[in-house]
Amino acid sequence: MAYQPQSIDTSEASDRYFFQLLRQKTLAERFTMAAQMIRWAKAISLRGIEKARGHLAPEYFAQAVLQDKWTPALTPTSHKDMWIQDPGEIAQMLHEILESLSIAYYITGGVAAIAYGEPRTTRDLDIVVEVGGSEINTLVTALEAAGFYCPHGAVEDIQSGRGRVLSITHMQTLLNADIVLNANTDFDRSKLARRRLEAISLTTTDQFWMVAPEDLILAKLLWGQRSQSEKQWRDVLGVLKVQHDSLEFDYLRQWGTTLGIRELLETAIAAAA
Fold first, then answer.
1. Which of 140, 132, 129, 186 is nearest to 160 (CA)?
2. φ/ψ of residue 205, rounded to 5
3. What 3-state class would DSSP assign to 82?
């Protein structure tokens, strides 16, 4: 497969030049680029809501933006400006909570994709934690004490073994995160073992546990294969184009074969070369 630009209206030369510039940026610089895009997109969204809805804007904001995570404890009129923040804010809060409980974790999903690859907007923080269902109460207690809303139905599903995802909202900033319990598979254990500490901020020296780029590529190929998601494919190409010289291709190909996505992986590698 020939080189594939990130969008159909971008030439190969322009795409290659753009990613050459991105490779010269640090992980924190790429995340900061995306963080600025996220704040700008949220600000534009709020202005559009206020212009279209007038005095009904707060209620519409609660229903359309927060969706099912809205609770009476939140006041969108007073907190909407805090909502114009990036996922780095909630990453910091969760890092401190999880470290205090000695819970191993790593950031994955869109935040990892924009840090390792092409900056873009993303709504939530996706974070994988190594915690048993019987220990979820300790985590939920700490989250609620820090101002997070944890849906009781999701907590009960995790406790009973019916679910593995806890979608939380910070009640002051209105930032969201999906906390996912690490699965008991060889691949998921490998992802946890290979996580790495990375700085994603230009203003602090704080570091966060991130999924390794190889594991992010494999996970997104798996997810994209199931969902036929163009966004997942674009993220994969972005990470490959930026991280190409530092990737462990033997590891990628070994797991690509094991996971049954070797052909798709080779197509992605060729499209990003």
1. 132
2. -100, 10
3. helix
CA 79 vs CA 156, 177, 258: distances in Å:
29, 17, 47
Picking from 41, 71, 61, 57, the residue whose alpha carbon sits closest to that of residue 167 is 71
The token duo for 261 is 């996505």
Burial 96-117 (b: 16+ CB within 10 A, else e): ebbeeeebebbbbbbbbbbbbb
Residue pair 152/205 in contact by the 8 Å Cβ criterion: no
pLDDT per residue of the chain (273 residues) written in tens, 0 to 9? 799 999 999 999 999 999 999 999 999 999 999 999 998 888 887 788 778 877 776 666 666 665 544 444 444 445 566 667 889 999 999 999 999 999 999 999 999 999 999 999 998 899 999 997 678 999 999 999 999 999 999 999 998 889 999 999 998 888 899 999 999 999 999 999 999 999 998 887 889 999 999 999 999 999 877 777 889 999 999 999 999 999 999 999 999 999 999 999 999 999 999
Q: Which value, in Å, is the radius of gyration of the alpha carbons in the chain?
A: 19
pTM of the shown model: 0.90
Q: How many alpha carbons fall within 13 Å on the CB side of residue 226? A: 7
Buried-exposed string 34-56: b where 16+ CB fall within 10 A, e elsewhere: bbebbeeebeeebeebbeeeeee
Listed residue (198, 180, 173) closest to 69, CA to CA: 173
208 forms bridges with which residues in the sheet? 198
